Amino acid sequence: MNKKFAIIGKGFIYNLHAEAIAKIGGEIADIIDESQGPDAWKEMVKKTAADCIVILAPNHLHFEMAKFSAENGKIVLCEKPLALKSKEAKVLVGYPNIFTVYQLRYHPFTKKLKSEIKEGENYQIEMDISVHRDEDYWKSWKGMSDRSGGILFNLGIHYFDLLLYLFGKPSEISTKFLTEKTGEGKISGNNYVCNWRISAEAPKDGQNRSFKINGVNYDFSSTENLHICVYEDLLKKKGVDPKEALSSIELIEKIYASAKK
Question: Same domain for 109 and 206?
Fold first, then answer.
């Protein structure tokens, strides 16, 4: 690829992408956001000299933008989630060169665990993702479930993907409770049981992003820009494609369905 990138959206995650692009020797050829009109991104996709479109727009727009960009012959890198519905993700499976951002797969703990986890052993997992989100967060599109997909897509999908990546598909899902800002439940698989908790109401000094696996705690907080690793793979046309991204989207759908029972 020509290392030229066109970016749709310039929210808080933009700086991490800009840094990653610079680190791989890339160039941002075009940037567009909603202030330039709701459909201006389509003209950019058609006209840009970049051969990769980076999607940083609100979650509910990801599917349409990824599909349109792929149909116009572009490589696509889309922030999570790739889509808010599994049926949309299944449509994207039919297109080449679409990738989504699951940067925690590149975390040093992930690499370590991937090499150590064995199919024949049983694992008890305690997942606690407790973060602080202020009023501005809830007033933005991220606080609107129809645009964000809710707390599980906004905050949980990285960690649910991590669970599936490390331990495999679930066989049983139950949800203790789920609100707009917090939730708890259990996910069981062939060789694991995961009790999960997600909250956006933690105090600033009490935030936590951890997996406790058989009593050993792994903190997935990181000061390193793991997006750099995502872009390094992208140059090789490697990464998490729609078929692989589908698993975590289906899991979240099942969690929401379980919560309604």
Answer: yes
